[in-house]
Amino acid sequence: MPHLVGDKRVDGKLIDGKAMAAKLREAIGEQVAHLHTHHQVTPGLAVVLVGEDPASQVYVRNKARQAGEVGMQSFEHRLDASVSEQALLALIDQLNQDPAVNGILVQLPLPDHIAETRIIQAIAPAKDVDGFHPINVGQVAIDGQGMTPCTPLGCKLLLEHQLGDLSGQHAVVLGRSNIVGKPMANLLLQANCTVTVAHSRTHDLPAICRQADILVVAVGRPGMVKRDWIKPGAVLIDVGINRIEEDDRTRLTGDIDFQSVQDLAGAITPVPGGVGPMTIACLLLNTLQASYQQLNLPFPDDLAERAWQPQAATTP
Q1: 94 among known catalytic residues
Q2: Is 130 a catalytic residue?
Q3: pLDDT, tens digit, for every residue of 34-43?
């Protein structure tokens, strides 16, 4: 049943992040081939994994596989959990200096004896495809020109594909992490939304969420957002990926109580299959952008928009 979100009509449907990510990767692959053919450059992504965290291993494996599928070089560095901070910093310095590496990602979280802040700041900002370096954080906040964190970027692309121009929408971001909540709020502000950031100390959280035309939830609490938190017709972006053990199997669920809100929402991302695939696609997009910038070439800023057209534009 169609709903109004602000002044826009939406259809109460699932937002298929998996399909959208596949189209974006296809467009990225075309640009990678263009770089290789016309500039003899193959973008390279280096991923560093410290320790044996099972979820991190899955993420790293998926990132490496998808980088290869779009024609990028993938460099994996797997280190023991006991590796020293000094040794990790030395590896990052090596990757910073390597011209074959255009993007560097250090998989978080890191072991307790390693300071994440120090590691993030050691990555060259031009190769910081996670968008976590303070220089990139500042640039994104000021004018949107820095390397944008992958998950918020994926959320923004999903919203723009669903709603088009986001101007004037009231967006509520539930969560204030440096990785998702804060950069998501900045991106929505730059898209001319009216933005409220809510969190664990917010008074009457359900009432705040009910005001949202757009609700982005990133808190890591399974099923926290219930039906009576939702404005009818709101577009819901569920960033949560929570693993629940039941009946000898692991089930993935989001931060939104999907079953109770699906018929009320204007559109909603499922978990899995929503934000997650777009996060990895945007990592590849950032790596491609880093490659262009390091070659002093103009980057095709409309790449994502072109990816979802019925007929993709010709590669420049």
Answers
A1: no
A2: yes
A3: 999 999 999 9
